[in-house]
Amino acid sequence: QVQLVESGGGLVQPGGSLRLSCTASGSTFTMYAVGWYRQAPGKQREQVAIISSGGTIYYVDDVKGRFTISRDSTKNTVDLQMNSLQPEDTAVYYCSYTGWSGDPPAPKTYWGQGSQVTVSS
Question: Residue 54: left if φ>0, alpha if ψ -120 to 50, beta else—which one?
């Protein structure tokens, strides 16, 4: 099992910034991608940003230019720097980690506990 522990959520005013961090621990296996998802009130969970083991990065359109995902393999962490936050960014943010393990190898995704991000005046 891989455990993902998130930190950094909170309440911020529009235009402000927050940085979410996710630290992985536990069993090791070949990582394919790590990323962040969010679920806003009354909406389905959506992918926000991912980064692959090869460094390929994807952002959902409405966060491009505002959010930055980064990974530090030496610390087993993935961060999401969120700038120019707007009320529509309000959601629970989840860290995800997908890798390959087992014999035969199979993909498996792990999730953090979720971090509440609230953007409001």
Answer: alpha
Per-residue pLDDT tens over the stretch 65-80: 999 999 988 888 999 9
For 9-42, b/e burial (b = at least 16 CB within 10 A) is beebeeeeebebbbbbeeeebebbbbbbbbeeee
pLDDT at 62 over 80: yes
- pLDDT exceeds cutoff 80 at 28: no
Token reading at 36: 């962040």
Task: Tell me the DSSP string of 73-100.
Answer: TTTTEEEEEE-S--GGG-EEEEEEEEEE
Which residues 6+ apart lie within 8 Å of 83 measured at CB?
A: 17, 66, 67, 68
